[in-house]
Amino acid sequence: MMLLTFLDVSGRKLFSAPIYGAYEVTEFMMGVLIFSALPLVTARESHVSIDVFDPFVPRAIGTWQRAAVNLVSAVVLAFLGWRLWVLAASHLRTNEVTMTLHIPHGPFTFAFAVLALLAAVAAFVVALAHLRRARGRGAA
Length: 140
Fold this sequence. Notes:
The protein is mainly alpha-helical. The protein has helices at about 1-15, 20-45, 60-95, 105-140. The protein has one domain (about 1-50, about 55-140). Helix 2 (about 20-45) runs parallel beside helix 4 and helix 3 packs antiparallel against helix 4.
């Protein structure tokens, strides 16, 4: 993706000849990169986070907090996956394609929907693990 962008910009600036359709290909590559990493990043809890208050939150409450955050994430990701699924169905029904290269949107949108739903499942599983850990500490 970086090489394509570099060559496209270089060709445009140096030779007044950009790569035909590079913008569309870069858009799809960006979507594939983000959505393919989403389930793994979610399962590992590797999202960017701000921990300003974490030093002040007791450990037991922190576990419940992480469970709640992952449950909310699971709901949001499931909603995103559902809406992407609806959009993908619309793309396929209307045969929507890109303007320059005529790449169909539907298959990519379906893939993004499935990956968002997998990320929702991952967030739910992580939330359950935090809940088990929190309950185990409470029983001890």
